[in-house]
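Technical annex B. To support the medicinal chemistry partners, we prepared a structural model of the target in complex with ribavirin triphosphate, based solely on the information shown next.
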Amino acid sequence: MATERTLSIIKPDATARNITGKIVDKLESAGLRVVAQKRVKWSQADAEAFYAVHKERPFFNDLVAFMTSGPIVLQVLEGEDAVAKNREVMGATNPADAAEGTIRKAFAENIERNSVHGSDSSENAEKEIAMCFKADEIVG
Ligand code: RTP
Ligand code: MG
């Protein structure tokens, strides 16, 4: 498996609790390297554009409200099989289903306030990285 990049977001529930570093520790311990990072606050338009794939889902409006409720940390992670590795260390969407040792098991509050986002395929990773970072903001 070749070196790959994925988009990670530390969500507002986690920045509110000041646990950004604890989450980065788990990502780094899993062999992922942070090659771009910035803290931002999304507008409604930013969140709607990022989550456009979910716009027909019943949780869309709540998700947009949550993701614009406070600061978030956008990251590009690099490593072997980075998309799958990040999904593995994140754990299941619902923390009640998340495996021991995962970020969501340790930190998520509920199925919505679940602390992290990670791209779900290489194709989506490329799109999401391009939405969030300029090429010269990523230093591998
Ligand atoms: P993510 O995209 O954030 O990495 O999470 P995921 O793939 O595990 O979950 P996805 O199905 O893509 O859902 C995106 C985010 O929407 C919120 N959600 N709320 N209230 C609900 O039933 C519900 N379901 C999903 C979560 O914040 C989820 O991560
Ligand atoms: Mg998803």
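Notes passed to the chemistry partners:
The pocket of ribavirin triphosphate (ligand 1) is lined by residues 59, 63, 93, 111-112, 114, 117-118, 120 (CB under 6 Å).
DSSP finds seven helices and four strands in the chain.
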